[in-house]
């Protein structure tokens, strides 16, 4: 496979994942804003922008943080080059680049969803339309992944695409958690107290884990359990542990496929020895924030190493 | 422009009776409920949009993707008609290859006084560094598209030869897929020659032209595209996909150890045959346009040293020139020793004083084209042009007469299209696709039918609002 094509597959799935994660983040914030007072709502929208790393661009364009402004900025803001509409454009142009390495089913799923979303986002989304838009974005992810799993040859292209998915998902989950870690930390000593469980639910909603967490824990919400679930539970497909396992499988498959292990695999092992055996208590002891910063850096370094190992660029 | 005189309609004769080729189709058509046809017509559009069969149009700001309108009424050719056309096409393509070989070698045709030398040296597509070089297998035009027009039951003319980089074959294939998907029963009632193995035939044809440096095993074939913003990117990806070839861009390629190699995830890998969809000018910044980022620095040296096959060979565009076209009857005769089976459209070369005088006197009746033009740009269609447009064109023509040729306005045949109000005749042309390899000449039974969607219009180019039809060659 061409290095450029591998790069396109990797980024096609990173952008698809990013669009979906962004939609979940907005959905969770929207729910929070609807059920809380104005001050909490504003803080919530501010934290969405911060989680996405868009403070600079946002504040250059807008004065205050209100929902309508934030979601339009995130979804389609012309002053936000990383808006969701652009992400879908990037999904599609990467899919076009890799056209001969994806099936027609995948291409048509990408193309049809891009057409629908691009049209939806051509105009500002009001309160009533935002649910429809977010639903369409999540559906796009489901359809493309479904077509992909059902029709793609399990060769290196499959693993580059999956590596992109899990690098991006791990990045997103870690950022969401990091943005709220200060809410989770002090409450450790108040397990079961009446502290703001709404904020914790918010974290779970942002990673699409609220329902399953609640089911697993009989409706009990507490900080330690949430961190354990989102970081360490390898049954949950958006946890850091799950993403790491999947990425490790991808790197292993690529190494077998190529007959040689790359630098990415070494970095992975290195990170594993530091992080993968930690318990939730050890994580809190070492500092959740410090743990997440280390995780994000190692995740980014592995992504970079994949690009070099497999000649993504000339 | 308005068609002149009475046009030959391919479906109906002068009495309004269905011609035999269309008899079964028309029976089927008559049996379909109008609402069903309306729904299918909309469905075709959605299919093309969803599958991304688009071409890009360059506007002021950014490239926009558009659909080439598809008409669901097929254009039908009978088996005997096709046999006759095939013989003529094969003869012409054989002559074209011999002609190109001769031009870049001894130029016997010039020595024999059958072609003026100035036509070569003023030809923008002429490549001095192809002189004395023989491409692998002696093949210049691996893929050719011959544009045909029809004016009567037995009258086909060649309007243009596309020896450089003919496009449109993906529409031939996708139009058929779409028709078979929409109307499977039609194909069970009527025997239509298949076109679907074109990509396999292309792959085989290209693989038969490996360069001397080929080291055995399975030849590595790649399609070189300018990238996703090119108007024909869909086709480039489509062909690479169907052939099982890599789809490469200039940035993927580099000359390593005397071969053109592509950057794969495992390192650089040599390419044996490059089906390039990049013009000569952009192919090698070291030899041609130094600003080109679309090509491969040094590829021409590798080519000349036998390290790669380039299809079509650089410099074949010479034969697309419309001044050369006007000599095709002589060219066919010179190299095949036979009379041309397919006639040219009468052509006045404005470089000749007498012809120029005639053209200037009859501008309002003629079609005047630039010798290097293509895609329907830069031409004058006398009968539909205003006095002012004609006057402006006259000035350009007088200033550079050798840049133009003129042809009569032909009474192009029509074939009906589907409209909300029923079938309506529209002008059509036909581009069959021809593959050339050392194993022989291979013509796929069918081709691309382009149709002018505006009533009376004779301009079928997609860049000018033309559409396409599925083209059927009936089985015997």
If you had to describe this structure to a student in words, what would you say it looks like?
The complex is a heterodimer of chains A (314) and B (476). Chain A has 314 residues and is an all-alpha fold. Chain A has two domains: 1-152, no CATH class; 169-314, no CATH class. Helix content of chain A is 75%, strand content 0%. Chain A has helices spanning 3-35, 38-51, 55-61, 67-76, 84-97, 104-120, 127-151, 156-184, 197-206, 210-216, 223-232, 240-258, 263-275, 280-286, 288-309. The longest helix of chain A is centred in the N-terminal third of the chain and has 33 residues, at 3-35. The radius of gyration of chain B is 23 Å and the shape is globular. Chain B has 476 residues and is α+β, with helices and mostly antiparallel strands. Classes of the chains: A mainly alpha (314), B alpha+beta (476).
The gross shape of chain A turns out to be globular
Radius of gyration of chain A: 19 Å
**Beta-strand segment tally of chain B:** 22
Residues in helix, % of chain A: over 70%
- Helix and strand pattern of chain A: HHHHHHHHHHHHHHH
Number of discrete domains of chain A? 2
Give me the count of strands of chain A. 0
- Number of helical stretches of at least 4 residues of chain B: 15
Which keywords apply here?
heterodimer; A: 314 residues; mainly alpha; 2 domains; globular; B: 476 residues; alpha+beta; four-stranded antiparallel beta sheet; 22 strands
Summarize the structure.
With 314 residues, chain A is mostly helical. Chain A has helices spanning 3-35, 38-51, 55-61, 67-76, 84-97, 104-120, 127-151, 156-184, 197-206, 210-216, 223-232, 240-258, 263-275, 280-286, 288-309.
List the helices and strands and how they pair.
The complex is a heterodimer of chains A (314) and B (476).
Chain A: H1 3-35, H2 38-51, H3 55-61, H4 67-76, H5 84-97, H6 104-120, H7 127-151, H8 156-184, H9 197-206, H10 210-216, H11 223-232, H12 240-258, H13 263-275, H14 280-286, H15 288-309
Helix pairs in contact in A: 1-2, 1-4, 1-5, 1-7, 1-8, 1-9, 5-6, 6-7, 8-9, 8-11, 8-12, 8-15, 13-15
Chain B: H1 23-31, H2 34-51, E1 54-58, E2 63-67, E3 70-77, H3 79-103, H4 108-111, H5 118-121, E4 143-152, E5 155-162, H6 169-182, H7 184-189, H8 198-207, E6 221-224, H9 233-243, E7 246-248, E8 253-256, E9 259-264, E10 267-270, E11 273-276, H10 280-283, H11 299-304, E12 309-311, H12 322-325, H13 328-336, E13 348-349, H14 353-361, E14 366-370, E15 380-381, H15 387-399, E16 404-408, E17 414-419, E18 422-431, E19 433-437, E20 440-443, E21 448-452, E22 466-473
Parallel strand pairs in B: 3-22, 6-7, 6-11, 11-12
Antiparallel strand pairs in B: 1-2, 4-5, 4-19, 8-9, 9-10, 13-16, 14-15, 14-16, 17-18, 18-21, 19-20, 21-22
Helix pairs in contact in B: 3-13
């Amino acid at each position: 496979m061409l290095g450029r094509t591998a790069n396109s597959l990797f980024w096609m799935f990173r952008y698809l994942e990013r669009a979906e994660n962004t939609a979940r983040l907005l959905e969770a914030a929207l729910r929070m804003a609807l059920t809380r007072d104005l001050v909490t709502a504003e803080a919530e929208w501010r934290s969405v922008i911060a989680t996405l790393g868009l403070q600079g661009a946002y504040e250059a364009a807008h004065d205050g943080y209100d929902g309508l402004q934030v979601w339009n900025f995130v979804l389609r803001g012309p002053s936000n080059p990383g808006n969701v509409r652009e992400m879908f454009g990037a999904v599609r142009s990467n899919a076009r680049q890799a056209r001969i390495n994806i099936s027609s089913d995948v291409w048509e799923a990408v193309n049809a969803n891009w057409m629908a979303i691009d049209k939806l986002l051509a105009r500002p989304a009001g309160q009533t339309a935002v649910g429809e838009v977010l639903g369409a974005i999540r559906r796009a992810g489901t359809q493309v992944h479904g077509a992909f799993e059902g029709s793609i040859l399990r060769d290196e292209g499959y693993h580059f695409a999956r590596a992109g998915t899990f690098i991006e998902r791990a990045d997103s989950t870690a950022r969401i958690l990091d943005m709220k870690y200060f809410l989770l930390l002090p409450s450790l000593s108040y397990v079961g107290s009446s502290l703001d469980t709404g904020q914790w639910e918010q974290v779970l909603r942002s990673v699409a884990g609220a329902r399953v967490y609640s089911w697993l824990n009989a409706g009990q919400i507490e900080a330690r359990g949430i961190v354990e679930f989102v970081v360490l539970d390898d049954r949950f497909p958006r946890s850091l542990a799950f993403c790491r396992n999947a990425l490790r499988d991808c790197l292993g498959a690529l190494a077998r496929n190529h007959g040689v292990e790359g630098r990415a695999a070494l970095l992975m092992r290195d990170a594993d020895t530091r992080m993968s055996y930690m318990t939730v208590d050890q994580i809190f002891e070492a500092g959740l924030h410090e743990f997440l910063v280390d995780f994000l850096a190692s995740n980014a370094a592995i992504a970079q190493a994949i690009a070099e190992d497999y000649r993504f660029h000339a | 422009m308005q068609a002149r005189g009475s046009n030959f309609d391919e479906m109906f004769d002068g009495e309004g009776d269905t011609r035999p080729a269309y008899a079964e189709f028309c029976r089927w058509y008559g049996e379909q409920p109008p609402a069903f046809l309306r729904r299918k017509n909309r469905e075709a559009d959605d299919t093309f949009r969803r599958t991304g069969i688009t071409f890009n149009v360059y506007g002021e700001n950014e490239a926009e993707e558009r659909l080439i309108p598809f008409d669901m009424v097929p254009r039908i050719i009978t088996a005997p008609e096709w046999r006759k056309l095939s013989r003529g096409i094969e003869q012409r393509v054989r002559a074209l290859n011999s002609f190109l070989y001769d031009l870049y070698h001894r130029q016997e045709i010039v020595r024999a006084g059958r072609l003026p030398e100035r036509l070569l040296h003023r030809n923008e597509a002429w490549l001095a560094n192809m002189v004395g070089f023989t491409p692998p297998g002696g093949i210049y035009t691996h893929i050719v598209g011959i544009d045909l027009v029809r004016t009567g039951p037995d009258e086909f003319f060649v309007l243009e030869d596309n020896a450089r980089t003919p496009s449109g074959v993906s529409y031939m294939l996708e139009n058929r897929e779409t028709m078979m998907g929409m109307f499977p029963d039609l194909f069970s009632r009527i025997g239509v020659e298949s076109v679907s193995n074109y990509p396999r035939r292309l792959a085989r044809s290209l693989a038969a032209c490996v360069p001397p440096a080929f080291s055995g095993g399975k030849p590595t074939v790649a399609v070189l595209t300018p990238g996703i913003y090119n108007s024909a990117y869909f086709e480039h990806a489509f062909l690479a996909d169907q052939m099982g070839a890599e789809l490469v861009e200039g940035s993927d390629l580099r000359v390593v150890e005397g071969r053109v190699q592509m950057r794969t995830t495992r390192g650089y890998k040599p390419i044996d045959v490059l089906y390039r969809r990049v013009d000569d000018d952009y192919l090698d910044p070291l030899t041609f346009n130094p600003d080109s980022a679309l090509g491969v620095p040094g590829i021409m040296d590798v080519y000349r040293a036998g390290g790669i096959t380039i299809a079509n060979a650089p410099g074949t565009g010479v034969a697309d020139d419309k001044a050369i076209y006007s000599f095709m009857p002589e060219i066919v005769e010179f190299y095949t020793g036979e009379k041309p089976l397919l006639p040219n459209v009468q052509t006045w070369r404005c470089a000749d004083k007498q012809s120029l005088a005639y053209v200037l006197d009859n501008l309002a009746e003629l079609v005047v084209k630039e010798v290097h033009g293509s895609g329907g740009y830069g031409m004058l269609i006398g009968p539909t042009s205003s006095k002012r447009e004609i006057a402006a064109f006259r000035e350009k023509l007088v200033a550079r007469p050798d840049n133009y040729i003129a042809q009569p306005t032909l009474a192009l045949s029509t074939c009906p299209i589907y409209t909300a109000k029923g079938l309506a005749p529209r002008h059509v042309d036909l581009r069959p696709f021809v593959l050339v390899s050392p194993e022989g000449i291979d013509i796929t039974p069918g081709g691309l039918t382009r149709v002018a969607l505006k009533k009376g219009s004779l301009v079928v180019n997609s860049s000018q609002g033309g559409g396409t039809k599925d083209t059927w060659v009936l089985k015997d």
